[in-house]
From TrEMBL:
Any GO molecular function: transmembrane transporter activity
Keyword Plastid attributed: no
Bilayer-crossing regions: 21-38, 58-79, 84-103, 115-136, 148-171, 177-198, 231-251, 303-326, 364-385, 392-411
Protein name from the UniProt record: MFS transporter
Alphabetical UniProt keywords: Membrane, Transmembrane, Transmembrane helix
Gene3D superfamilies: MFS general substrate transporter like domains (1.20.1250.20)
Presence of the UniProt keyword Membrane in the record: yes
Superkingdom classification of source: Bacteria
């Protein structure tokens, strides 16, 4: 044990896995930096819109997310994965540069362009991470994923810290439009990393049988989704997670209305910094050990049950500082523990599900959940029942408990399959 490199002792990543893990870390670092460069600008917009307008933007996000997933599944049926993955990031880079040009030319009204920006960045946020994990998870088996995914995922948090810090350093020299140009450039810089990872994974798997091509049927991912019990369970887990996100997002938005846009950006920037610092610490020292020692059921249900308890405590005193503190706990716990555990679940499915069904769950189900829950909250609030913050947060706690129960089911199913299979096999 003591003769292992320090890196391995800290992260549990074996020396033979280190190069691929480090490049994957840099890859997701750049992806998250590209998003979080824009995120403070995006998150400051909804407090000016009102509940109905915000609900409409979430509805538009779901619609465009669905369209994007359908097009992606069609491309996955026609294009090799070596071209598909870099093609996705090149497309998003081009789209952000196009929005930048629209700002600069002034051909689109600024308020409308702001809403387009909000919707498209919301689509991008989920899509880019889903494609990243589809690409990465195909090259790791169940045992390897429990060691490696927690470390790789800390790259996302490091990127989420670096993005806003970069903007703070350049704040006097750039505006919102220029941020889009920077995002597009950062995304283009990920393309050489994909090439490097393909070479590393090719060497790792050179003696293994060439995996079969994806089905040419563009709807095969949808068919697998509705007929696969485990995939439906993951979808339910994500749907309930979006409920908790919506409860806290609306509470946060309402409580920030009395603050100026500059003050909102400062507060939200502090939340981002605290969240991602805590995520890195958990990702390096806790995540891998938690999954391997206590199993997937505990790993997937820990944060849901903790959030349920904190929501009940918050309902007694829903001050903005406590809402933001709970956001830090929820998001750090999700990024460091729940999200990597969720990605481990996809090492137990085939490539068809990993590349075609996964975006349906990660993007369509997620954004569909956003739409459902934002309208549920509108129904509970101003639209009809006019419930106060306290009863609304208590309902959120009940949703979190249900979220945790689904996590236990998924974790036990995964652990039972591991026990039946014995030593982990290389993913197909």
């Amino acid at each position: 044990m003591t003769d292992k490199p320090l890196f391995t002792r800290l992260t549990q990543v074996e020396p033979s896995e280190a190069k691929g893990a480090l490049i994957s870390f840099v890859f997701v670092f750049m992806l998250m930096a590209s998003y979080t460069i824009m995120k403070p600008v995006r998150d400051a917009l909804p407090s000016d819109w009102g509940d109905v307008s915000l609900a409409m933007q979430w509805t538009y996000t779901f619609i465009f997310s669905t369209i994007a997933v359908v097009i992606y599944n069609l491309c996955a049926s026609l294009v090799s994965l070596r071209r598909l993955v870099p093609g996705v990031f090149a497309f998003f880079a081009t789209s952000f540069i196009a929005i930048y040009l629209a700002y600069k030319t002034g051909q689109v009204e600024v308020t409308l362009l702001g809403k387009i920006f909000y919707v498209w960045t919301s689509v991008f946020n989920l899509f880019q991470i889903s494609v990243f994990w589809s690409f990465i998870s195909q090259h790791y088996n169940k045992s390897e994923s429990k060691r490696v995914f927690g470390f790789i995922n800390t790259g996302a948090s490091a990127g989420a810290i670096a993005g806003p810090l970069l903007i703070l350093q350049l704040a006097e020299h750039i505006n919102a439009a220029n941020i889009l140009l920077i995002t597009g450039i950062v995304l283009l810089l990920t393309l050489p990393l994909i090439h490097l990872l393909n070479r590393i994974f090719d060497r790792k798997e050179q003696n293994k049988q060439t995996p079969p091509k994806l089905s040419p049927n563009p709807f095969s991912g949808f068919m697998e989704f509705i007929t696969h019990r485990r995939l439906l369970g993951i979808a339910a887990f994500i749907f309930l997670f979006t409920g908790i996100s919506a409860f806290l997002y609306v509470a946060q938005t309402d409580l920030l209305r009395d603050y100026s846009r500059a003050e909102r950006k400062e507060l939200l920037g502090s939340v981002e910094l605290a969240t991602n610092t805590l995520t890195i610490l958990l990702g390096i020292f806790a995540t891998n050990r938690l999954a391997r020692r206590f199993g997937m059921a505990t790993t997937l249900s820990l944060i849901p049950f903790l959030v349920a308890l904190l929501l009940l405590l918050l309902s007694a005193n829903p001050a903005v500082v406590f809402v933001l503190a709970l956001q830090v706990v929820r998001r750090a716990g999700n990024y460091a523990i729940t999200r990597p555990a969720r990605e481990i679940l996809f090492t137990a499915v085939d490539r068809e599900a990993r590349f075609k069904t996964k975006p349906i769950i990660d993007v369509m189900v997620y954004r569909g959940g956003d739409v459902v829950w934002i309208w549920v909250l509108a129904f509970l609030g101003d639209a009809w029942l006019k419930l106060g913050v306290t009863p609304t947060l208590c309902i959120g706690a009940a949703v979190a408990v249900l979220w945790g129960i689904v996590g236990i089911f998924l974790g036990k199913t995964h652990d039972a399959a591991d026990a039946e299979e014995g030593p982990s096999k290389q993913p197909s």
